[in-house]
């Protein structure tokens, strides 16, 4: 009896810790009872009792036909808690930092970064040499906050060729797709807004949204795209502010 109680407390403690360190945020779907029991090597009744106690504590809730979801308030972001720990492998901020700080020859699966021999390095070198021979005012100081006007004009004209009405003042250049999404989040979101993402999705989305302190809800992604029934249910319940999707989750 005591051993069973200890296992129940272990499950509760594990989930509470993940809520505390923001690995589990409001709206996150927990593993099914059977899956968690299998993963931990515990009996189904142990996990059922743990989930029931967490429901009584107001940490999670059960949704008929859908599963168990986190409802506890989002824990304050504590930067001192973001260092690597034994249970930190699923923390998106930790994963991002490990990828960025890793040695150049380290293998980085899942990052989506292309190898150097796939990149147009010689073309980039040629372009840089050309820039260094230009007038001094193009080498120092600030450019337009929207990005290089000539390039924006080129992109706008290409968009027009595809039937998209745009001019260069409607085009903003960013360092990456992640920065572009970050700008959208800064403009549209405030803490505790609900954002939908694919499950699974690019791990950088998790890190980005965690910093913005929003409620993240994953929509199961099937071979044919997002699960539309789950999508409909979540929209009706949470009225999300934003949906971020990546149609090519090849990385």
SSE topology sketch:
Layout: H1 2-20, H2 33-40, H3 44-56, E1 60-63, E2 67-70, H4 92-101, H5 121-132, H6 149-161, H7 177-188, E3 194-199, H8 203-211, E4 215-222, E5 225-226, H9 228-238, E6 242-244
Parallel strand pairs: 3-4, 3-6
Antiparallel strand pairs: 1-2, 4-5
Helix pairs in contact: 1-3, 2-3, 4-8
Write up what this structure looks like.
The protein is an alpha/beta fold and 251 residues long. It is built from nine helices and six strands, in the order αααββααααβαββαβ. The protein has helices at 2-20, 33-40, 44-56, 92-101, 121-132, 149-161, 177-188, 203-211, 228-238, and strands spanning 60-63, 67-70, 194-199, 215-222, 225-226, 242-244. The chain has a four-stranded mixed β-sheet. A two-stranded antiparallel ribbon has the order 1-2. β1 (60-63) and β2 (67-70) form a beta hairpin. α2 (33-40) packs across α3 (44-56). Residues 79-89 have low confidence and may be disordered.
């Amino acid at each position: 009896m005591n051993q069973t109680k200890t296992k129940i407390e272990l499950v509760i403690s594990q989930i509470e810790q993940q809520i505390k360190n923001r690995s589990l945020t409001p709206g996150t779907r927990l593993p099914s009872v059977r899956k968690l029991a299998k993963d931990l090597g515990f009996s189904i009744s142990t996990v059922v009792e743990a989930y029931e106690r967490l429901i009584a504590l107001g940490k999670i809730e059960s949704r008929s036909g859908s599963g168990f979801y986190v409802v506890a308030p989002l824990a304050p972001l504590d930067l001192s808690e973001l260092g690597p720990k034994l249970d930190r492998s699923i923390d998106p901020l930790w994963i991002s930092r490990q990828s960025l700080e890793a040695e150049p020859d380290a293998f980085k699966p899942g990052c989506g970064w292309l190898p150097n021999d796939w990149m147009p390095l010689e073309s980039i070198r040629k372009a840089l040499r050309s820039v260094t021979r230009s007038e001094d005012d193009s080498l120092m100081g600030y450019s337009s906050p929207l990005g290089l006007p000539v390039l924006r004009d080129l992109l706008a004209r290409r968009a027009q060729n595809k039937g998209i009405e745009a001019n260069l003042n409607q085009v903003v250049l960013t360092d990456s797709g992640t920065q572009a999404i970050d700008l959208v989040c800064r403009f549209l979101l405030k803490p505790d807004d609900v954002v939908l993402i694919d499950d699974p999705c690019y791990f950088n989305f998790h890190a980005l949204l965690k910093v913005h302190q929003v409620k993240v809800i994953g929509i199961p992604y099937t071979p044919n795209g997002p699960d539309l029934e789950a999508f409909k249910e979540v929209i009706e319940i949470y009225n999300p502010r934003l949906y971020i999707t990546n149609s090519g989750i090849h990385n």
